[in-house]
Fold this sequence. Notes:
Number of domains: 3
Order of helices and strands: HHHHHHEHEEHEHEEEHHEEHHHEHEHHH
Amino acid sequence: MTLQADITRAGLGVGRRSTRAWRALPAFAALSDLGVVACAIALATFSRENLFETPGMILDSVLLVGPLMLLGTVAAIAILGGYRPEVFGAGTDEFKRVFNAGLLAAGLTGVGCYLANFPLSRGFFVIAFGVGVPATVTGRWLLRRALHSARRRGVLTQRVLIAGSPSHVDEVAAVIRRESWLGYHVVGALTPATHERSTTHSGLPVFGDCEQVGAIAAEAEVDVVFFAGGAFESAGELRRRVWELESEPVQVVVAPSVTDISSDRVKVRPVGGLPLMHIDPPTWTDASRWGKRTFDVVGAGLLLVLLSPVFAVIALLVKRDDGGPVLFRQTRIGRQGEEFDCLKFRSMVPDAEARLAALHASSKHSGGLFKMKDDPRITGPGRWLRRFSLDELPQLLNVVRGEMSLVGPRPPLRSEVDTYEADTTRRLHVRPGMTGLWQVSGRSDLSWEEAVRLDLYYVDNWSMMQDLSILVKTVRAVTASSGAY
């Protein structure tokens, strides 16, 4: 089969209109910034004219300075790289550049008016930039949310070609497919000449050898070329292939052989022309310090007080349903393998544990976390308790006692821990949590492997900001009832 036939079979013709729209994104962002800054200037003018009892004194100066402020802010964003295509969609770099550009525009406006002895109202200046800078950053955040939503629907994507050894190609492709919000659509692969198969192990079509990257990228009209591990035997060969691509409108990305590392732990420092990637140690030790523990105790204590009426109502409903115990205690494994009694409102029949073996056999369960839809052991009140995760509220007591945290990996059973591989035991480095990345990423809809991956990512890349983000997302996940059964 010819290369052109391979390209057609891979569907490379699909999405070219999307690519053109992607390339127009910087222009759209510039128009958005212009609109936001113009609104801030209009608001500052209105406020100064109507709220400070000096009507008619500001309009003339705004007509002169306003356009300069408007264009100057957008120019500052452009100078600081806020419209470069690579800043859109991921990371905090975009927001930092927009924020710094707003401060630069404010500084230049203030200094310029002072040197020119121009009578610009201080109230107007403070309102225009005090509102305009945060509003511009917020506008970019809203634009990113819209961009992520469009990418998940297959719009505004970029066509990607990955060059490397088959195993490395599949690793990079798996991450790209999983994180669909990145907007990368993998269309094919290039492998070393020694690889003779027409596809990689995951089924990705191979278009040719890595040495042909220049010609194939041009013929396939891809937007991005990823160079993964094993693509070339030397750095000089990689440099020559990059030179081949300089005449094409193609973005070049080198994907190192590391995954699930947060950006906070990665720093790239070029030394003698060699870009060295420095990876900070995992942060799980920070998750065990007094700051997180204080946050857990204070947060859990407040929630226990505020939700005490809810506790009383749930206890009454559970007891009235079948007369069984209100709380369900189950031995779980905590930090460093210590056992503790995990508390829940009982959502199953009293003999649920006795029926578990029969359910394992009927569902052919082989290991890991056992969850099934329409579990016959769930009681009437238990169904809506589980739907909104209200059955887990008593775990606030576990948090106060120091056995759990508000945020962390899911507390495992002893039977699960006994089957852990060496890597999986890293989940036990921190206290288990009432919620975590697994909770806000699909809950029971996740596969066992994906749940473990998310927990290990949390352990290795813990931060307080991530905890706060997970807590906010938990409210949305619980309200939507996604993956809860």
